[in-house]
Amino acid sequence: MAAVLPHRPNTNSTSTSGSIASRTHTHHRRTSLSSFPSGSQDGATTYSHHPTISQPSSAQSYASLRDAQLQQLPARNPRRRQKTVKSQYPPDSAEKHVEYILVASFDIDRGSVMEHQYPGPVGGDEHMLAELMLPDGAHVRAQDWTIFFLHKDGAVEEEGEGVEGMGKKKSGRRKSGEGAEEGSDYDEESEDEADQTDGPPLVYVLNLVNMKQDKTVKRGAVVKAMAICTRHSFLHIYKPLLLLALQQYFANPVMETLASLYEAVNSMDLSLMPRLSFHERSILQSSEAKDLFLEKFEAIIAQRMASNNNNPQQNTAAAATSRFGLPRDTHSFETIVHYTSVPVPIKIPVALSPETVGDFSLVKLITTFSHPHPFAPTHPHLTTNGPLTHPIIVLINALLTQKRIIFLGHNLPSSDVAEAVLGACALASGGLLRGFTRHAFPYTDLTKIDDLLKVPGFIAGVTNPNFANKTEWWDLLCDISTGKMRISGRIEQAPLTEGVLFFQQNNGAAAGGGHMNPGGGISGIVAAGASLSAGLGGGGAVPQGNMAGDVTGDNAFMQNVLQAINERHGENAVRAKFRRWVYKFTRLAAAFEECVYGATSLHIQHARTNTSPKAGMDSPLVESPTLSRHNFPPEVTGHGYVWPSPQAKNQELAANATRIEGWRNTRSYYNFIQDLAAYYTTRPVKDLDLHHLHDKLAKLRLTPDTSAQIYLAVCSAVQTDAEISQLLATIVSGSSVDRAGSQPQGLFTLALGLFHPKVEVREATAGLLGRVREHDAGRHFWMGLGRFVRIGFERVVGAKEVREEGS
């Protein structure tokens, strides 16, 4: 049976940025009803993916439009071997999308009461769970949403009191990716096996509260809440289903209503959602192209059709019930859930970052706290630019240095404070750091304050104004109603560490004995002027005008972010900016540790045995010279962040000294070290620091010989699809941006090798660009190059062909 895959429109956007993602492991443990972590812890029906695809006229219009636009894209090489594409959620997986459905109500005599739990009781304190489902002020609003997390309890599991299904691992999804493609030098699926977590897995709970007027009951209203418990961090996709289900439950409050919802959501078919490697996820998150990695969707659909052809029974059922279709936008996977005879469209994000839960908006969070205001008192870890540090920078610093943070939304829905908490976690994570969400409480109240205060570095959302008066409970209070932040007068003072003292003495001597301002944080430590690299914002320009005193570059960065918001660049563009900010911060921290302490755990790279004689042969940092695939010259074996001069390096590290020292003793710091070790085992290019080399080409004035060594090394190291993906992910996460300071420069820096004085460099660069042009994602990067570069490419390729024919 032949079938034609419908085409979708193509957009050739090249907006990019990078991130590091990790997947959460699950363990055989039961759920604890307490939403606080332990004190010891520091057969599915296939649906059409878009209904309009089944209309012949629509399919023809899409096909004609895509065919016209695909003529502009480089043609794919038909001889390239297509690897088997794995599914994120295989059809034979035993994992359920939703594990529990709960219903609670408010009784005027008994308070919050749990009415139903399906398919069985969760166990533990039902009253506490019911209170979490019915937030303060639920009786004054017709509708409200809350989110909270259930933490696994290892001690309960040891007693053998688990509910079947809650402790199951995602074994089906994991096992589907075990083993590399035969003959492949890189196993993309092994990334998930290498991921680490800082504790047992979370169960995410999405809760809907409705209040309906009813004069026949006491107080004249009925308040009920329905919650879905899932391990999917994209729990916002269940909102339309919860709205329908709670309406059904008001009309028919029986267990069968929950059973029908449970069966509907768990019949959702996600088996055609392709699994992307870590680098592919980074590329997809940073791009606006709606057909990026469309080839993977095509491949997994073709695999399914081939499988159905081999299984006549499956093929008959599939042909009778559904039709495969490609997504309109590859950033999300579209499917349909049929509930009470209503087809509910669902869109699931394909590429997720760690610490990304729900459908929060960074634009909304930044806009809420967009107006700078003076801070009193100040703190070295928080007010890194003195009393007038931007509130968003203070928030990020508080998250990085593991301070106790409360978002207060007096007279606001609990959903507003929950979104602010989740947005803050993603803000500081940047898709790179972990440890924020696990200690976040999107909504809590005064009855749970004792448990909350036992958690170090919590991020909590509240609506009770009494929290504002208890300054001993928090270090930073973010008032959503007023858009102001307050630093507690009882915050623990930062110690004077070796790193801070190191730069204080050096820069004090350089500035002629300048003194520290104890209340100004880093601005009191650094007296040598502004950072030449424009701080963590990345632009590389010297701050001027009202930015001349911006020692960290944070003010310039926030100005750029707010400008992007005003110009309506969108949520993805804003998230990309903060991903680059966090990534650069980790690279600065690595350079800081090497400068102050002589070594760092924030970078792993091959080291020659003769340079590390004391290291054991089993160390990941040691490599025998005979094991190296490349014999690189010294000019290309460096690593880390690149500065234009030693003075610029010293100034920027000094400007970030207290912030880095505050981060070095936090959960996210140690989690990042673990993630780096896991990432190193799956990194395709281990011999070189591609980011370091790319930055040297983009930032420094190099001699022709030095630049030739770098170009030849990169071209030699990047050969396979996995290595090209790593290179592209490196480019999108780069600190070198365009003159507007908004987007990475794409392939432009590498493409300059086409005009190098040495012919071998020009030909090697043309070969690399040719491989990139045939890559699924590289084709879009190629389209971002200008006509001048393409003509140069054709000239180099043509000259090489003429030379080879002549010889």
Give the helix/strand layout.
Elements: H1 56-70, E1 98-107, E2 111-118, H2 126-133, E3 143-151, H3 154-158, H4 171-175, H5 190-194, E4 202-213, E5 221-230, H6 239-251, H7 255-266, H8 278-286, H9 294-310, H10 312-321, E6 332-339, E7 342-349, H11 362-368, H12 391-400, E8 405-408, H13 414-429, E9 440-441, H14 449-452, E10 459-462, E11 476-479, E12 484-487, H15 498-510, H16 522-525, H17 554-566, H18 571-597, E13 607-608, E14 622-623, H19 646-655, H20 657-663, H21 667-682, H22 690-699, H23 704-717, H24 721-732, H25 748-751, H26 759-774, H27 778-783, H28 787-806
Parallel strand pairs: 8-10, 8-11, 9-10, 13-14
Antiparallel strand pairs: 1-2, 1-5, 3-4, 4-5, 6-7, 11-12
Helix pairs in contact: 6-7, 8-24, 9-10, 12-13, 15-19, 23-26, 26-28
Short summary:
With 807 residues, this protein is of the alpha/beta class. Helices cover 38% and strands 11% of the residues.
Sheet with the most strands: spatial strand order: 2-1-5-4-3
Mean pLDDT: 78
Helix content: 25-40%
Tell me the major beta sheet. Answer: 5 strands, antiparallel
Taken as a percent bin, the fraction of beta residues is 5-15%
How far the N terminus sits from the C terminus, by CA atoms, comes to: 51 Å
Number of helices: 28
